[in-house]
Amino acid sequence: MLFVPLLALLLGLWAPWPATASPPERRRDYEDRAPNEYLAVPAVASLPGIGVFVGVIGSASNVGDTGINGGATVAKSIDGSDISIAALAVQEVPTGVPHLSFDYQYADIRLGNLAVYLPGRDSPNFTIPITARFKFQLLRPTLRFWERRIVASYTLAYFRGFDLGPSGNEEPLTRNSASADLLLDFTDDVVDPHTGVRLSFGTTLPAPHHSILGDDSGTQTAFGNDPHLRIRNYGAAFYWPLSKRLVLAWDNQYFTTSGDIPSGQVVAGGSPPLRGYPEGRWSDRYGVFSGLEARYIYPLNTHLDIVIAHGVLEAIQLAAFYEVGQVSPTNNHTLFEQMHHSYGLGARALFQAIVLRFDLAASDEGVQTHLTIGQAF
Prior knowledge:
Elements: H1 3-14, E1 37-47, E2 51-63, E3 68-77, E4 83-94, E5 100-117, E6 127-145, E7 150-164, E8 170-187, E9 196-205, E10 230-241, E11 246-258, E12 286-306, E13 309-328, E14 340-350, E15 355-363, E16 366-373
Antiparallel strand pairs: 1-2, 1-13, 2-3, 3-4, 4-5, 5-6, 6-7, 7-8, 8-9, 9-10, 10-11, 11-12, 12-13, 13-14, 14-15, 15-16
């Protein structure tokens, strides 16, 4: 029932684009990427809500001219939190079936002293320490049609680690989870759009108890995701070229969580991606987010062939952004009251198919830094 008014809203927001310009032509064909473009960045960075890290972030595009992308992260905390992350990902591995490829991710994570926030609209400004060691796998078959304007995927994830059992003791836990996503990309570029609109929908799904990644342990735990809950995410992002070098990007998100839980329990269904707050700072059954970002592009078109980078550095992009978001246990007017605000500045290095992004964001609870691959939206 919610989808009908949301669709009407999206169609109304679509109105500024004339029918003859929808969708805009692609500025470049993603399939014609140069092979073996890569970026490996040694960095010291703060991961919101986790800690201060030293490590390497790497990304590769069109490896061996196969169309496969790759990524890796190795990082260790240096602020006493005793956290380490080792992750590897391959994307768009061909299957031999037209339009169908798959992604695979693997991560080994140790949380020696992770601080997490309590869920809920009125979450207090203090954290709860968590110690854990777990491994994570993800398998995602994806269909892409019409110059990547229509993308549909199914995600199967597998967690192997520990959680708190009913008695409060740490118990082994293995669990499958599943979700599905649909993206309609009516923009002029897959990697860094300048004009057009993107519409997205995602939902969690019932997960198999036995999968190619592993089997569920059947353990009932305190912090494991409740399989009876369904989280649905709706998104709409719009891009306007204000001049040849200045682009305005506007992202809107809404999520809802359905399903029965014990009375009085707070549902950490979703969290708005406010860059000025730690990851997961605000979470509840319902949530909204809106972010506006002005991006100024300074063209370079410089070929790099050094140890840490290979490819054409097309441009440096400077950004200023402002965001609002809120969560609520009820889907009514309270969702739009006492909004949280986030704002900041950022810089991006734009390669043909890789975006290295650094953001410095502030809120009423301090400053957060982000160093990652890909645009925020």
